[in-house]
Design a protein that fits this description.
This protein is α/β, with parallel strands linked by helices. The protein contains seven helices and four strands, in the order αααβααββααβ. A four-stranded mixed beta sheet has the order 3-2-1-4, with helices on both faces. A hairpin with a 4-residue loop joins strand 2 and strand 3 (about 95-100). The longest helix has 24 residues, at about 100-125.
């Protein structure tokens, strides 16, 4: 167990999440997802979690492992073309993880997703949370548009509103 990590998670409150993601920022992120999804048939979901639960910390759950859990819980894997993408932020660790369904994941590859994550994390380190998330959404949308371009009929399969866990 990493003591410093545990302290960060135990001292992270909903106030911290709300400070970086107030209602106006959540609305801007939602609008960015709506706009981005006009360019492709994929689905983008953004979720932010302040901290892991004590049990998860005790077993040493990584941000990646938690992101995979959230991907499943939110049923992002259940899109028609297997092209759902989760952008997950674990605020206490300042760690961004992207989990993508198999239809898009193999096309972009691990390094492609990692590059988007690192770019977002750099923005967050500078305090630019809204801009970091929106640039990440746009980068994911570029990948989806390349492999799953927009069609005349697009059914929104997942809510566009960011998820606060």
């Amino acid at each position: 167990m990493n003591g410093t990590r545990i302290i960060k998670h135990l001292t992270m409150t909903h106030w911290h999440v709300n400070r970086h993601f107030p209602s106006a920022v959540l609305t801007a992120i939602e609008n960015a997802i709506k706009l981005a999804e006009r360019t492709h048939t994929g689905e983008i979901c953004f979720a932010v979690e302040g901290a892991l639960h004590t049990r998860s910390l005790r077993i040493g759950q990584s941000a990646r492992e938690r992101a995979v859990e959230v991907f499943s819980q939110l049923r992002i894997w259940d899109t028609q073309h297997n092209n759902g993408v989760l952008i997950y932020l674990l605020l206490a660790d300042r760690d961004v993880e992207i989990v993508a369904d198999r239809g898009i994941d193999l096309k972009v590859g691990k390094q492609g997703w990692e590059d988007i994550c690192r770019h977002m994390e750099n923005a967050f380190r500078q305090g630019y949370y809204q801009q970091g998330v929106i640039s990440g959404i746009n980068a994911v949308a570029e990948q989806l548009a390349q492999y799953f371009p927009a069609s005349e009929v697009h059914h929104n399969e997942l809510p566009d509103r960011p998820v606060i866990l």
